[in-house]
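Note on ligand handling. Small-molecule inputs were canonicalized before submission; formal charges were left as drawn, and no protonation-state enumeration was performed. Where a ligand contained multiple stereocentres, the stereochemistry in the source SMILES was retained. For zinc ion, this procedure yielded the string shown in the input block below.
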Amino acid sequence: MPADVPLEAAHPQPCRFCAANGYDAELCKFAHERPVDTVAPLATKLASIFQQRTPTDEQVGYFMQDAAAIISDFDPLPDVWRVRKLPCGVDDEFVMRFRVNDVTYVVEDAEGYNEPVRLATFRQWQRESEVLR
Ligand SMILES: [Zn+2]
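Structure output:
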């Protein structure tokens, strides 16, 4: 390594949203492989709906992994993300329902971290597991 490269530049840093949650560079990469500039706009939108209108970096950080999962469903990526919260019933099998650019997403009510998944995909998984039974 050339002597003039600062030590910080030689080491990957977590993005500021992951850093706000105490993540190191490795956890940041685990949460979202895509660049922060790709993931943060949708994570910010999600945080502004599920946390508060002007979310903190920490609150945006909660949604980086969710945003990365959603983004992987969109090709090409839209210019603008539109997110709308949908109501969940008391006995709902999901803890979150929302629409992203007119596609319904759900988060399953189950142990641990569950990535948001398209409702249509979730129903297809259910049908496939019925067939296997
Ligand atoms: Zn990050």
